[in-house]
Write a structure and sequence with these properties.
7 helices; elongated
């Protein structure tokens, strides 16, 4: 039971950390993909290096994590309030050709990142942007003045990479 409680604690702690970090740091992969990538080897490392001869703890920990991810997914799908609690909201970065400094500062987006996304979308001037929106998944959606979202899947690759 202690293992289950520790995994639940780690799950909540990491979720809170990702929410605190914000959307941009995670734009290249889903948060739970990163959690799985980082935690699953840790769960099994002691058993695999024979520091702990029992695989039971590792299996219980991994099963608990997978169960939490599945339950979170189901709850987010079925309950709108839970989904709004778990997911971040999109943020408007540009409105009618004007950079929204408060929003940009809150999301920690450099104006150069927006300009890079604009240029990759084929827009040269800020005045030609009706809206630039930082979506929940960390991608910047650009909507050209005069209507029509600009579809460019590469628009956020360079802009979102912080290494």
């Amino acid at each position: 039971m202690e293992t289950v409680l520790r995994v639940v604690f780690v799950y909540v702690f990491i979720w809170a950390c990702f929410r605190t970090l914000g959307k941009r740091e995670l734009s290249q992969m889903a948060p739970f993909e990163l959690v799985m990538l980082l935690l699953i080897p840790q769960f099994f490392s002691r058993a695999l290096t024979r520091q702990d001869y029992s695989m039971t703890n590792s299996i219980v920990a991994a099963t608990t994590l997978f169960s939490l991810v599945i339950l979170t997914s189901i709850a987010s799908f079925k309950f709108t309030g839970f989904r709004h609690f778990m997911e971040s909201k999109p943020a408007v970065l540009v409105r009618q050709g004007e950079l929204l400094r408060d929003s940009i500062g809150h999301e920690r987006i450099a104006p150069d990142e927006i300009f890079s996304a604009m240029h990759k979308a084929g827009i040269e001037r800020l005045e030609d942007v009706a809206w630039a929106i930082l979506e929940s998944d960390g991608k910047i959606a650009i909507i050209r003045a005069g209507g029509g979202e600009v579809h460019n899947p590469d628009a956020d690759k360079g802009a979102g990479a912080r290494q």
